[in-house]
Amino acid sequence: xxxxxxxxxxxxxxxxxxxxxxxxxxxxxxxxxxxxxxxxxxxxxxxxxxxxxxxxxxxxxxxxxxxxxxxxxxxxxxxxxxxxxxxxxxxxxxxxxxxxxxxxxxxxxxxxxxxxxxxxxxxxxxxxxxxxxxxxxxxxxxxxxxxxxxxxxxxxxxxxxxxxxxxxxxxxxxxxxxxxxxxxxxxxxxxxxxxxxxxxxxxxxxxxxxxxxxx
Length: 215
What we know:
alpha+beta, 3-stranded antiparallel beta sheet
């Protein structure tokens, strides 16, 4: 590729920036023993470097991944909202609004980033380069399809987490800690043979408590 023809620089710069910021935050959290769910890290840095070098394989892969990840993020966000009891949402907005607003803002930001990257890599100049290299330039329908399948699997897993026997066991253990004055909702569940771990929210119109139970 000629050096003066490079329509991928903006997307590359953003991926590099987000990747480096993510790595810095991850290191900070590790040093301070704080939990952190990384999003870009090495993926962003490597993708950014490859884009700067004009890798058309990377362009094609990122166009596909941008759609796939955006579908997953949007679907999981709606799934989380729909599977969360309305009374719990009201209680969280009253006592801990950032736990509701924060994830929504992060999800919206990530979707905006991936859509912007897709648009940058689907510009007329980008598509012309892909056509010359015999790459497909249509929208990646398989990304939508696999994203939908991923959402179905996630939905089934969430349903089992909320309504399964292990969830009922976790709620009973949580009730032993806080009593019957609260309602309970399982937000995270790990089960391995005869043992398990769960994060449970105890909530009422007066308070919200995060509980951890083990068995």
